[in-house]
Amino acid sequence: MRKKITVIGAGHVGEVCAQRIAEMELGDVVLLDIVEGMPQGKGLDIYQSGPVIGSDSRVKGTNSYEDTANSDIIVITAGLARKPGMSRDDLLKANEEIVSVCAKESGKLSKDGIMIIVTNPLDAMCEVARRVTGFPKNRVFGMAGILDTARMRTFLSMELNISVESITAIVLGGHGDTMVPLVRYTTVQGIPISEFLPKDKIDAIVERTRKGGGEIVALLKTGSAYYAPSAAVAEMVEAIVKDKKKLLPCAAYLEGEYGFKGIYLGVPVILGANGVEKIVEIKLNKEEKEMLKKSADAVKELIDLLKV
Ligand code: TXD
To answer: Does residue 12 have an active-site annotation?
Structure first.
């Protein structure tokens, strides 16, 4: 049976998510937006690339939640994106309203679905979706860590002139400037990165990773990143559809793990057919623990402002 994957929000991130999911033939795609005609047009256009690229995924654009009924996976990208000078947190109020409508309406019609949140501020928006849907924590989580990690891996690859595929990294914490790139666990094919680069170079890459989203916002001027974000979403969708049990950093709801309770935070998880099947706890040193605490405090501040 084909999977049904709904992408809500057919803007930059949503449209490329739909495209990637269809190209990877992960299932049939429904692309929903409030703007009339736009998701229908984009959906049809993506569908028509099928014969050329060899994908039989059906793609349907819509303005109606009825079309999303019985989705296996729902990706929420609806909301406002950052403009230059705007922090992710400035988006909180506007996007809280949008995400609560999108999650509630789609959740009602796909009671067993898995919801992947993309809208910023990411960790707080995951909590909005969890509250309005009442879904268990394994079925509501967010995309951020894969993107942050991919940015770090790209910067390291640029510096070292070694394949991005040989570089593994892990970034924890909230999806904001307080994120925690774990240098100790960053390797080139298992060899610690400290064997390849001096501390000042590594520190500069960590800093660029933290500000990686802002760098692109400043260049684009009219929106935020979407090619790498949509690739990260597609990796998550694939892990679920194919039950890959992939270890990936995702924004997951913590209930005591890493010493935090009742908040979403980026942590390594096992992603499979049941969504977040396990949160993987790795040992952190004192400095890493302190950075994670700071990041968790920043997320908590936003969660405390939520109205839902
Ligand atoms: O790492 C991450 N999690 C992120 C998050 C990486 C990149 C982008 N990130 C966030 O995703 C970004 O800060 C935004 O909050 C969202 C979507 O970013 P995108 O770049 O796709 O924004 P666009 O192009 O403005 O598209 C948003 C779409 C647009 O078509 C609106 O019409 C639609 O959302 N929208 C809605 N759709 C359905 N229902 C409602 N209520 C609605 N409101 C707006």
So the answer is: no
